[in-house]
Design brief:
Layout lengths: L1 H26 L6 H24 L3 H15 L2 H13 L3 H28 L1
């Protein structure tokens, strides 16, 4: 049953990513992959918060698996971020590629740490 719930939540997360990505791209007309950055940073914040809740307040393992692995795993996308970074470099936009690759990593890790802190304090 856990596998079915994780898969269903992953589908919802992927659909949510599709909607958020399309909404940001429609509103922010830019050549920088802002949508993927927003998605990965917000997903990291939420996963951090869920982890903090699990560590500090005993959120059941099933919830952590379904929401963390399923929903947020489907929502976030490391592969797209990697692809977009390579595309920026191929277009000789080296500064943008560096900002996208390294910047997203730093922001996502900081967001995850903030999320853990929030989850522990709630």
């Amino acid at each position: 049953m856990t596998l079915v719930l994780v898969c269903a939540a992953g589908a919802v997360g992927a659909a949510l990513r599709f909607v958020v990505d399309g909404t940001i791209r429609a509103r922010a007309k830019m050549r920088f992959p802002l949508a993927t950055t927003v998605i990965n940073v917000t997903g990291s914040l939420l996963l951090g918060a869920l982890t903090g809740l699990a560590l500090g307040h005993g959120v059941p393992q099933l919830w952590h698996a379904v929401v963390g692995t399923g929903l947020l795993g489907g929502y976030t996308t490391f592969s797209t971020a990697s692809f977009e970074t390579i595309r920026l470099a191929e277009d000789r936009r080296y500064v943008a590629a560096l900002l996208n690759g390294a910047g997203m990593l730093v922001l996502a890790v900081a967001a995850a740490a903030a999320g853990v802190a929030i989850g522990l304090r709630v």
